[in-house]
Write a structure and sequence with these properties.
The structure is a single chain. It contains 2 helices and 13 strands; from the N terminus they run E-H-E-E-E-H-E-E-E-E-E-E-E-E-E. The protein has 211 residues and is mainly β. The chain has helices at 25-32, 67-73; strands spanning 7-8, 37-39, 42-46, 56-59, 97-104, 108-112, 115-129, 135-145, 148-156, 164-172, 178-190, 195-200, 203-209. The strands form 2 sheets. Strands 2, 3, 8, 9, 11, 12 and 13 form a 7-stranded antiparallel sheet that branches. Residues 1-31 form the signal peptide. It comes from Actinocrinis puniceicyclus. Keywords: Signal.
């Protein structure tokens, strides 16, 4: 197994205090590299798909998608199209008062243990009362045409009783896949899957595997 595919979970904020995700600074860097070559045949292209917010977002119990919207708008993992909710949602906490900030990185191509991989990460950070447990699913997707994206790899943190959840995912560039477009999806959940917010990478990566 490649070394950097791992679960990241640790507390970053004091109780009741919202702090912007430190990784949000990467969004500005991602925007600056849009439409530029990353080396070899890898090129960043600004995200255009209208299905999800780009780069980052915030959600609360008042404006997040509930279980029903999650099932219809974001199919379960194992679907060939999108990443989404898994399992039955827990009971919603009455009078919950919280906000969660979510971030998804751009995909990148790197070499790990001699293999070319497409890598991405996503995170969420929550504050307030009633958001826990939280969960993040990071997914690497490949564009298949006509608006459809196929899941290539994913990593699920599972439910975490904390204010932060984040995970890395990677997919080994398979020989003969040719020049393809990739994006990273972060599916984030609060109140034990009762509320959900998905975000796509700010930029897509067009790359030939292997190159």
């Amino acid at each position: 197994m490649l070394a950097f595919k791992h679960l990241r979970s640790f507390s970053l904020v004091a109780a009741g205090t919202l702090v912007t995700l430190p990784v949000l600074v990467g969004q500005a860097a991602s925007a600056a590299t849009a439409s530029t070559t990353t080396g070899g045949s890898a090129t960043y292209i600004p995200a255009t798909s209208p299905d999800l917010p780009r780069g980052s977002a915030t959600y609360t119990a008042a404006n997040a998608a509930g279980p029903a919207a999650s099932v219809t708008g974001v199919p379960q993992l194992g679907s060939s199209l999108r990443a989404g909710s898994i399992g039955a949602p827990a009971a919603i906490t009455p009078n919950a008062s919280w906000i969660c900030s979510v971030y998804t990185s751009d995909p990148s191509k790197t070499i790990e243990e001699g293999q070319q991989v497409i890598f991405g990460e996503s995170d969420q950070l929550c504050s307030g009362v009633g958001y826990a447990p939280v969960r993040t699913v990071t997914v690497i997707q490949q564009y298949r045409g006509l608006g459809f994206w196929a899941n290539k790899d994913s990593f699920d943190t599972g439910l975490i009783d904390d204010d932060y959840s984040g995970a890395d995912a990677w997919w080994i560039c398979a020989s003969g896949t040719g020049n393809q477009l990739y994006r990273v999806i972060g599916d984030n959940y609060a109140e034990a899957n009762a509320y959900e917010q998905s975000v796509q990478s700010l930029n897509y990566l067009r790359v030939t595997c292997p190159s």
